[in-house]
Write a structure and sequence with these properties.
Elements lengths: L1 E8 L20 E2 L4 E10 L2 E9 L4 E7 L2 E9 L2 E7 L2 E8 L2 E7 L3 E7 L4 E9 L1 H6 L16 E4 L4 E5 L3 H16 L3 H28 L7 H16 L7 H8 L3 H12 L3 H18 L5 H7 L5 H12 L3 H14 L1
Parallel strand pairs: 1-3
Antiparallel strand pairs: 2-5, 3-4, 4-11, 5-10, 6-9, 6-11, 7-8, 7-10, 9-13, 12-13
Helix pairs in contact: 2-3, 4-5, 4-6, 5-6, 7-10
């Protein structure tokens, strides 16, 4: 089917050229082109673009990232990958790319690479602002004001700061509404309103984190603890149907129960079970879209013995029941 790309400004926006501040979806920097999906680039106003993407990675996808000076807010609904920032001969990372909201502040631009797992789904929103507009809204434009000691910091190089921000239920609901409206192309005012709300929430989270860091500077995550977290993520993603427990995962990773919980939240921004649930639901949705079994079989394959519990979680996460998604998938395959 290929990758479907649309670039336009919002219907009510002042006329302007939609300048993509981040990677171009069909540029030569993408190694292993996306197998299929949709990519929408929307111009909110001069200096602010919103990219919406729902992509199947096929045999794998790697992208050399070159971005103009900007602030990027990336809300990933589904993603399995790793990113790095490069500066000169140095490499900073790795940065696990998982469902969550990432904030990158790059006053002088940034260079790096993102690699995504083969046969996976990449779905989310990327809001990019010119630094002057971000500063006018009250956002911190200097990475010196944030630093590696910020409680939401995921990576800090001499010229780029990346953080993993709290993803509240309200923020998730607004992001999902923005995604649906932007993909449908029928509610541009909703796209603008939700985008501005997300930007405002990101600024508030960063400001609150600065205050927290000033009061009590958290100890940096040790390299061995970070490796233990990555080991736990690999174990869970390797067998989503298993009834994992935190003590079991901690023992496998060679770390204490309490330290795993603390390190996992510090590294990913969420609790162990919250992360596992997100990955299970994401995998279930992928299997349903591909028609890889009945709702019951798919629920069991990702670790849910109770169909009613699975359905409730799935509906709350995606706004549709598993049966709805499977039915739409079957219809699409018959008509396609």
């Amino acid at each position: 089917m290929g990758l479907q790309i649309e670039t336009r400004q919002l219907a009510h926006a002042e006329p302007h050229e939609v300048a993509v501040l981040g990677p171009q979806p069909l540029s030569s920097s993408f190694g292993g082109m996306p197998e299929s999906g949709s990519y929408r680039i929307l111009g909110l106003r001069k200096g602010v673009t919103i990219s919406l993407f729902d992509i199947e990675t096929g045999t794998g996808m790697a992208a050399d990232m070159h971005t103009a000076p900007c602030v990027a807010l990336s809300l990933l609904f589904e993603a399995t990958g790793t990113g790095w920032i490069t500066e000169g001969e140095g490499q900073f990372g790795p940065i696990p790319l998982r469902p969550g909201i990432y904030c990158m502040i790059a006053p002088a631009g940034a260079t790096g690479q993102d690699r995504f797992k083969p046969s996976s789904r990449l779905r989310g929103i990327d809001i990019r602002l010119e630094p002057s507009f971000w500063s006018a809204l009250g956002g911190p434009s200097s990475i010196d004001a944030l630093g590696a000691g910020h409680p939401h910091a995921a990576m800090a190089s001499p010229s780029v700061w990346i953080g993993l921000l709290p993803l509240t239920p309200r923020l998730m609901a607004d992001a999902q509404a923005l995604f649906r409206s932007g993909m449908s192309g029928t509610a541009d005012l909703t796209v603008e309103a939700r985008s501005l709300y997300i930007i405002d929430e990101a600024i508030r989270a960063l400001a609150a984190g600065v205050n927290m860091a000033t009061a009590i500077a958290p100890a940096p995550l040790l390299a061995r603890d970070r490796r233990a977290v990555q080991r736990v993520i690999a174990l869970m993603e390797g067998d989503l149907g298993r009834a994992w427990t935190v003590p079991e995962l901690a023992q496998a990773a060679g770390i204490s129960h309490n330290r795993l919980k603390q390190s996992f939240r510090a590294e990913t921004g969420c609790a162990v079970y919250g992360f596992l649930q997100e990955r299970r639901l994401g995998e279930a949705r992928r299997l349903l879209l591909e028609g890889k079994g009945s709702v019951t079989d798919i629920a069991l394959s990702v670790g849910y013995g109770s169909l009613s519990h699975f359905t409730a979680l799935f509906r709350r996460r995606f706004g549709q029941t598993p049966s709805d998604v499977l039915s739409l998938s079957k219809t699409a395959r018959r008509t396609g």
